[in-house]
Amino acid sequence: MANSTRIRLALLLCYLLFAMLLNSVGVVILQVINDYQVSKTSAAALEACKDLPIALVSFFCASLLPRLGYRNALQLALLIVTGAAVLMPLLPEFWTAKLLFLAVGSAFALVKISVYALIGLLTNTQQQHAALLNLTEGFFMVGVLIGYWLFAAFIGEPGSWLQTYWVLATIGILTLLLVRSCEFPSAVRTEQHLTQDFTDMLRLVLRPLVAVFALSAFLYVLIEQSIGTWLPTFNHQVLQLPQDLSVQLTSLFAAALAIGRIGASALLRYLTPGQLSRICLLLMAVLILICLPLATPAAGVSSLWQAPLAAYLLPMIGLLMAPLYPMLNSAILSSLPTTQHAAMTGLIVVFSALGGTTGSLLTGFSFSRFGGEYAFYLTLLPITLLLFSSGWFFQRSQQPKVAAVA
């Protein structure tokens, strides 16, 4: 196998593994509530355990990674999560779940910055960059989909879901061996001092286009995590579906995201990113208003075919939100020189992580206080805000002068 092919495969497998681990937080929240008798508010802290390390590590290490080397960063990340995965079945406690997501979040910051920067090094044109970035993000959603079914396969007796982590640890070891076999392109380095690199990253946020991009990324991930993280619990407690079916039906959300990102490339031949984002956000609001009144208890369901209509319709919001995140990221990265991709990716990860934490905590709090239907109705507020912020961003990003100020 050619070295370039091995590198691409290694990047995709890294994303596959972290997709399964990161997006298992909704499944783990459901399981710790039932197995460890943890409150919903306490369980919601798992999202913060995942996202806050992503934000902190990205913020402080983005400028350091080109000096450390992306290959070394990927190997370190894989070692961290493999060790944390092994601890889960060996020490089945709530604090172990917190430790797992602390490790996963910290490691994912290293992976995402490295992968995004390597994409810039492996491609020569904007079209190649967009294609490889969309493939990578699409593969991430495939990993999310696989993860839901993998966890569902082990759900049964109390604690049996923890055996999933032996499979995930095995994938981590195999991916690590593949990364070690690759010869990665040299990171693009500057002659500046590390402090100056860090300062330059902070200065990016002061530019209006980057600031509005950061707000848009924050809002998008807030919406995605509000729905994706709490959908298993919504299916189980609001629709009263069994735990395994609740997780399996949540996989439709990941499948919808994957299909939506693939389909968006065809739609963008006929629509501008601004037009497509407006259509998607408006239809997301309409779908929520249609689905939630249909979300009534359906006790006695024992198979997927007996699940109520709302259990199938609500995950379809993923089809509509899917194109937004890759369009935002591609627009901002393509406008920057390769030397700034690591720093910009650090900012992307920081604001995405903060959005994920905020969304999950707010949804967990409102879910506990007012019920699942009310919690999901609240997503209409960030959808409205994102409609305005993304509209401004895409309008400005299409102007010729953007490359100079981005």
Which labels suit this protein?
single chain; 406 residues; mainly alpha; Growth Hormone, Chain: A; 19 helices; 79% helix; globular; disordered C terminus
Describe the structure.
Helix 3 runs antiparallel to helix 16, helix 7 (126-154) runs antiparallel to helix 11 (243-267) and helix 10 packs antiparallel against helix 15 (324-334). The chain is globular and about 55 Å long. It has a single domain (3-182, 193-405), classed as Growth Hormone, Chain: A. The longest helix has 31 residues, at 208-238. Residues 400-406 have low confidence and may be disordered. It has helices spanning 3-22, 25-35, 40-61, 65-68, 70-90, 94-122, 126-154, 164-180, 194-205, 208-238, 243-267, 273-291, 309-313, 317-321, 324-334, 341-370, 372-377, 380-397, 402-405. By secondary structure, the protein is mainly α. 52% of the residues are buried. The protein contains 19 helices and no strands.
User: Averaging pLDDT over every residue, what do you get?
Assistant: 84
Compute the number of helices. Answer: 19
Q: What is the CA-atom radius of gyration, in angstroms?
A: 20 Å
CATH superfamily: MFS general substrate transporter like domains
Uncertain runs with pLDDT below 50, 5 residues or more?
400-406
Order of helices and strands: HHHHHHHHHHHHHHHHHHH
The CATH class designation is Mainly Alpha
Q: What fold name stands as the CATH topology?
A: Growth Hormone, Chain: A
The percentage helix is over 70%
Please indicate the percent range of residues in DSSP E strands (runs of 2 or more). under 5%
**Shape designation:** globular
